[in-house]
Hints:
The complex is a heterodimer. By secondary structure, chain A is mainly α. Chain A has a domain at 27-189. Helices cover 67% and strands 0% of the residues of chain A. By secondary structure, chain B is α+β, with helices and mostly antiparallel strands. In chain B, 47% of the residues lie in helices and 13% in strands. Chain B has helices at 10-35, 44-59, 104-119, 128-133, 135-162, 180-185; strands spanning 76-84, 90-95, 167-175, 196-199. Chain B has a four-stranded antiparallel sheet, with helices on one face. In chain B, a hairpin with a 5-residue loop joins strand 1 and strand 2 (90-95). In chain B, helix 1 (10-35) packs across helix 2 (44-59). Classes of the chains: A mainly alpha, B alpha+beta. At the A-B interface, helix 1, helix 2, helix 3, helix 5 and helix 6 of A face helix 1, helix 2, helix 3, helix 5 and helix 6 of B.
Amino acid sequence: MNQTSYRLKTWLLQYVGAWDKFWFAPRQPQTLSLLRVITGAMLLYSHLVLATDLTSFLGDTAWVNNETVRQLHDGTFGVADFGWTYLSSISNPALLWSHHVFTILVTACFAIGFLTRITSPLAWFLQLMYLHRMTGTLFGFDQIVTYVAMYLVIAPSGSCFSIDAMIRDRFASDQRGRFWNWFFPAVKATVFSNIATRLLQLHLCIIYLFGGISKARGQTWWDGTAIWYSVSNYEYQSLDMTWLSGYPRLFSAMSHLTLFWELFYCALIWPRITRPFMLVIALALHAGIALALGMITFGMMMIAANMVFVSPEYVKAVASHLRFPKVRAAA
Amino acid sequence: MDSDPINISPRVKVLLSFLLTAHLFALVLPPLSVQTRGPIGPSPSVSTGLEWVEPYSQLLYIDRGYAFFAPDPGPSHLIQAAITGPDGQRREKIYPDIEQQRPRLLYHRHFMLSEFLQEIYHPPGPPEELQKVDPQEAQYWSVARARYESVRQSIMDHLRHEYPGNDVAIARIEHLLPNLIDYQQEPLELTDERLYRVLLDQPMQPGASE
């Protein structure tokens, strides 16, 4: 009995230790800072594209107008949800434009890492408001870019590859207080960088696992024709890949690989020995979606999100090799 | 104010562990509820758990199913708009249209809109028999139909705003995927008119697909 209780206690302590290491071991911020640059640039691009046809998506004369959006969320058509946004209450085009210009400025600041402690949560919040307003016109890109932005709020992502890093170094002094050190964080390993990294890693695992499960419920991912049917969808097509019909072994292998890769990503991305293979497949799969299926933004953003499995030390080494002065100095 | 600690106290770790676990539940339960929904409704255990996290997951937009190109890649759905001017001249527009909506991201938003209209489509009704047999189901039907009509009306209002003084009517078009075996034997253009069909908005008939 004593031996059993000893084993149980040992097991519990090992489990608590593993949990502690997984979530609360400090981590360097370079990978997240690079993700901030990419995510900020993609968000900025999304807002700029929206600006080319703003009132078709926001306001009282949009495709889905303010009243309809409010009804879609307030329970008029069934159960109410919590997809709240103030944007469905703004009718004045001048106000909508002012808000959009403000959003573009905030997002640009977030991308270049200027006042990141403010612009990071603000850029994410504004994006969330747009998402809830633009019900019916969203797709995977909007999801992944918002999730990455959300987790970056937790981390000191402005500590490198940023204007904040330049300001911190330019005005460096031992006399600076805690607020200054928080606002312009140093390049150092922190618990919050690790938590943000772990959350995004786990979120990706969940996305791929359920993506795989939902595909496994179909027939074409099993009989191998799914990839051909995907590339033969004219509305998605940006590169004519219908020639694949002449190569059944090729398109069926691609279908099976996609299915099994998604299903087992959540397990095989963690061991160091299988991680590079999973990341190479992620790169190939999402590059294929970007180039052939017309979702360049989605494909690029998913590739960027997968970078969260790249160690910050590796990013630091590459950045140092490319002669990013702030990183070199920190190294 | 220093939020970048290298070490944090055990008490804070316990609190953070609780919050992180709750967040993970909020991530997992929405897609799980999609996958565990069957002919008799959602899984009772999953939907019970979902009730706890739903406000949070909806607010953060993490209440997604992640079913990309699943369970099988299917046909596309388009919106065909017939715009008739005061002089009786009629022109047709198709949404999405890669020639009209650039860059690709803007095109894709229009594409998702046309897919959304199809996704929420519910035929006119409910049938009288349903109202007698299952009033609650009949109520669901009415609400679902009202949602479709509201979005359809909003789309038509937008087009009327874009083309003032014109009459506007819209229809849903399904763009089918070519059958692989047929395509291997006789390739056809993906824009071949045989691959398009108009989806009628009419009460459900016995044996009809819509």
